[in-house]
């Protein structure tokens, strides 16, 4: 059965999505993702059939039940996989990810940061295409990826601040403890958090504004080299910026679920070692109300290898490298990432809520 989904938003609005299943009539509109999820759930065995060899033996296409958690050390922190689910953890899940398609006329891609109130879509001159992928579940092996090897790194460290009720409280309480956590995990000597985003999924709500952000179902990278350098000048004193730019610096997002585990619309990360930066990444202007920024659109590649940790809890999190000034070929520079529809999500799972901090990270 062929599964094809195309999405395109034009200036002034346009069709949201089209899902075609062989000879069946296409599904269109904002409910297309629901049809994708239903289709995936109805073909459940597909989630245990990866296109490449598995690292563990599988019986009847299902991974063995993990009976005893294994502890891993992440830097100076200890990570212990949770045992939330009473069902076996899938080794892989099959889903579709929304990838960037450049403008057909060859013009520079651009997109508005805020969505159109009527359509709920961000106005852009680009298109998106869904591609079928396998995403590896690292539950029980959270310590395997690292920032410099893969572009992301999982950790377990409960936050002292847990309400996430207001921006003022988050900045006063959550920022300081997160700065110390970032220093501890990375070895950086200076960390400057320049903003944060709370995401709460609301399927019936089209609004996607800074106050009501929803999970982003689209493969992307937050920063380019130009926008990362601009961030240093924007958020650091003019007297500090020149010397800081002479040394290694990074932009790292600190992401964690809030209030409950993130089974719904979890976060997938692409191993940087499988990304061809020259071929896969396209600079795209990101239009804010008062200025222009720049991100990378990510084109599909069969080489991409995707990872996630199923059912991440509020005590767990992941560091996402969005930029690294060291670009000598020996370390990961960034990692594409996206929210996605997980066909193994329990029917009664609460809708995703998460917070991500964006930080400039400096080294001596």
TrEMBL record:
Region (Disordered): 1-26, 60-86, 201-220
GO molecular function: oxidoreductase activity
InterPro entries: AsaB-like
Entry superkingdom: Eukaryota
Transmembrane segments: none
Compositionally biased intervals (Basic and acidic residues): 202-214
UniProt name for this protein: 7alpha-cephem-methoxylase P8 chain
């Amino acid at each position: 059965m062929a599964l094809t989904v195309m999405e395109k938003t034009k200036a002034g609005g346009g069709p949201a999505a089209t899902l075609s299943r062989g000879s069946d009539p296409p599904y269109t509109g904002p409910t297309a993702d629901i049809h994708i999820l239903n289709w995936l759930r109805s073909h459940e065995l597909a989630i245990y059939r990866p296109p490449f060899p598995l690292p563990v033996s599988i019986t009847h296409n299902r991974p063995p039940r993990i009976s005893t958690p294994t502890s891993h050390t992440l830097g100076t922190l200890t990570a212990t996989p949770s045992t939330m689910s009473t069902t076996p953890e899938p080794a892989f899940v099959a889903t579709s990810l929304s990838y960037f398609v450049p403008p057909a006329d060859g013009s520079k891609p651009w997109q508005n940061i805020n969505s159109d109130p009527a359509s709920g879509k961000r106005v852009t001159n680009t298109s998106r295409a869904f591609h079928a992928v396998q995403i590896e579940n690292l539950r029980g092996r959270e310590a395997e990826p690292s920032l410099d090897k893969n572009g992301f790194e999982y950790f377990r460290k409960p936050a002292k601040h847990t309400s996430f009720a207001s921006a003022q409280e988050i900045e006063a309480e959550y920022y300081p403890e997160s700065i110390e956590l970032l220093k501890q995990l990375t070895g950086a000597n200076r960390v400057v958090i320049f903003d944060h985003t709370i995401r709460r999924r609301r399927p019936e709500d089209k609004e996607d504004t800074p106050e009501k952000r929803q999970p982003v179902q689209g493969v992307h990278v937050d920063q380019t080299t130009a926008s990362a350098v601009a961030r240093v000048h924007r958020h650091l004193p003019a007297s500090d910026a020149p010397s800081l730019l002479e040394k290694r610096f990074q932009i790292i997002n600190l992401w964690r679920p809030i209030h409950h585990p993130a089974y719904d619309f979890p976060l997938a990360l692409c191993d940087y070692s499988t990304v061809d930066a020259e071929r896969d990444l396209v600079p795209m202007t990101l239009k804010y109300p008062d200025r222009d920024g720049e991100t990378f659109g990510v084109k599909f590649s069969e080489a991409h290898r995707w990872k996630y940790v199923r059912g991440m809890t509020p005590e767990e999190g992941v560091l996402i490298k969005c930029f690294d000034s060291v670009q000598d070929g020996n370390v990961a520079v960034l990692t594409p990432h996206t929210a996605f529809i997980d066909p193994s999500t329990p029917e009664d799972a609460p809708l995703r809520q998460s917070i991500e901090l964006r930080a400039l990270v400096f080294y001596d």
